[in-house]
Amino acid sequence: AAAMIPIIVMGVVLEISKLIATVWLKINWNRAPIFIRTYLLIAIAILMVITSMGIFGFLSKAHSDAGLVSGDVMAKISVYDEKIKTAKENIDVNRKALKQMDEAVDQVMGRSTDEKGADKAVAIRRGQQKERVRLLAEIDTEQKKIGGLNEERAPIAAENRKIEAEVGPIKYIAKLIYGDNPDTNILEKAVTWVIILIVVVFDPLAVIMLLAAQMTFGWLKKEKEDEELL
Q1: Of 80, 91, 204, which Cα lies nearest the Cα of 153?
Q2: Which residues of 89-100 are buried (b: 16+ CB within 10 A; e: fewer)?
Q3: Among 223, 208, 215, which Cα is nearest to 48's?
Q4: 79-93, 165-179, 210-224, range with the lowest pLDDT
Q5: How far is CA 55 from CA 5, 184, 196, 203, 207, in A?
Q6: What phi and psi, each to the nearest 5 degrees, are found at residue 3?
Q7: 196-209 pLDDT, tens per residue?
Q8: Cys-Cys link to 51, which of 82, 96, 197, 203 (CB 3.0-4.6 A)?
Q9: Furthest-apart CA pair in the chain: how many Å?
Q10: 4-28 and 34-111 helices, crossing angle to 10°
Q11: Residues whose CB falls within 8 Å of the CB of residue 109, separated by 6 or more in sequence, listed in order
């Protein structure tokens, strides 16, 4: 980053040099001195490794950046999920308290068969009225809170689903190789192997295609010369 332009120029020059050296070796293999052939072969191999390392680093960084975004989104979702969980637990506690109040009234009614028992149950019910109102109000407040949290969570969850869709092909590859429900480490291995496969065919393929093109032009030139002689 401190010398971006010079490094770009250096990389372009080295890449062009690598291709020129490859073609030159192909054309002049039989008459080139052995030390030149050896050096150029080593230099080409090293430059291919450097290019492959650059590709690997570039793709790994892209995957890492996507992972950071996914991690941030998951962290936000976890916060909302925890708040929703707490609100649901508060609702459950209040409903349990209401149920206990109902059971207390039912027990009084069940133990008595006369009007005094009924009056006592009514009195208990009236004594619970203020607490019941408070509990029902808290339940209503928590339910509204859950609704608001779900609305805030929805766009973040949609973003997370979008990220998951982007890494979906990698998940399918991981499932194919490692079985169902691959964990994060297995997904990382799958990503690494996919990047390695891309690296293996990227720069070597470019060099081989260049040689193939040079050989094809040579064959066409020879065929044209043969036709002219005929």
Answers
A1: 80
A2: ebbeebeebbee
A3: 208
A4: 165-179
A5: 18, 23, 9, 9, 15
A6: -140, 60
A7: 877 777 778 788 88
A8: 203
A9: 129
A10: 130
A11: 117, 118, 121
